[in-house]
Predict the 3D structure of the following.
Amino acid sequence: MANKEASVAELTEKFQSSAAVLLTEYRGLTVAQLKELRKNLSANATYAVVKNTLTKIAAGKAGIAGLDDQLAGPSAIAFVHGDAVSAAKAMRDFAKANPLLVVKGGYFDGKVLSADEVKKLADLETREVLLAKFAGAAKASLFGAAYLFNAPLSKAVRTVDALRAKQESAN
């Protein structure tokens, strides 16, 4: 009994400290495949096989409702502590190579996600890519602004040079 309570407390803490949660069914995957999946997710998430009943209790204690339908069959959860998009991409890519891994859904930003919504999350650009695109756009805007500010100055210099040349040729 104390062991179950400790498990529920640990799962509750993981739910509360995670940026997102991705639920999967791992039936038929080998230990080596699960190890590979854990390695693929390690930068952004921890992946753990869970007991459905204890997970339902822990999710409830963490204030997460709506996962009960997804917690059926052999379940494992990726507790995302980094970029949720990167974790969803890693999960999707692994599932493509290993069709026995089934993404059942998840929880992100206060909302329960269906399997299709997790796939849409995986299709988004990662945070780093979005930041790089923003930086590129900002740099282009700054370059344009600098050119705009320098244009009247260079035009004035060319005009003064032309007047000086005209004056010298007149003398």
Notes: The mean pLDDT is 81. The chain has two domains: 2-124, 125-171. The longest helix spans residues 127-170. The radius of gyration is 28 Å.
